[in-house]
Amino acid sequence: MPVLLLLSCLAGAVRAQQQAPAYMPATGDASVDRRLADINEYASRYPAAFADEMGRYYAVPRAYVEAMQQQPDWTAGDIFMACALAQIVGQPCRAVVREWSRDHEGGWKAVAARLQAEPGNPQYRRLRSAIDASYARWGRPAPAGEK
Q1: Terminal-to-terminal C-alpha distance of the chain
Q2: Which residue, of 9, 25, 118, 121, has the fewest CB within 10 Å?
Q3: Do the domain assignments include residue 13?
Q4: How many CB atoms lie within 10 A of CB 21?
């Protein structure tokens, strides 16, 4: 009987995982999308290290990051994107969080465009460099499919 219960629980977990929508940040840059999805995985394993990174390098209070991590509508990838984008455009993270919360119909690409940091421009290149720097500090390899 315990084996059947365990198998039933495992089957339920697999179904829930299959039904969960895939994370789609829609940045307009497939490489950034993959990295934000990978940041979700990293932060799920190392939430304190993720919060430290955001505080130390993106000037976001650790308590704010931890509170955002508890919000069901926010992923670590979204938190990272909001705060890194904010730093690049010279705004506080909370301002970009509000902008995303107000309207994110077009994904992060649309939010970045409203902040004059759309893919291809110098600010967006700085964003990509910031992501690379975080990966280097974490000693984390690029997600599969990247150089």
Answers
A1: 49
A2: 9
A3: no
A4: 5
- Identify whether 120 is part of a domain: yes
Tokens standing for 37?
């999805």
Domain of 134?
A: 23-138
What is the average pLDDT score of the chain?
Answer: 86
- Counted domains in the chain: 1
pLDDT at 61: 95
CA dist., res. 107 & res. 50, Å (int): 22
| Rounded Cα distance, 13 and 124, in Å | 38
Between CA 37 and CA 20 the distance in angstroms is 14
* Digit-coded pLDDT (tens) for 97-111: 999 999 888 999 999
What share of residues in the chain are helix, strand, coil (percent, to 5)? 70, 0, 30
Cα dist. 31→11, 85, 91, 132 in Å?
32, 16, 24, 11
pLDDT digits (tens, 9 = 90+) for 13-72: 444 444 556 898 999 999 999 999 999 999 999 999 999 999 999 999 999 999 999 999
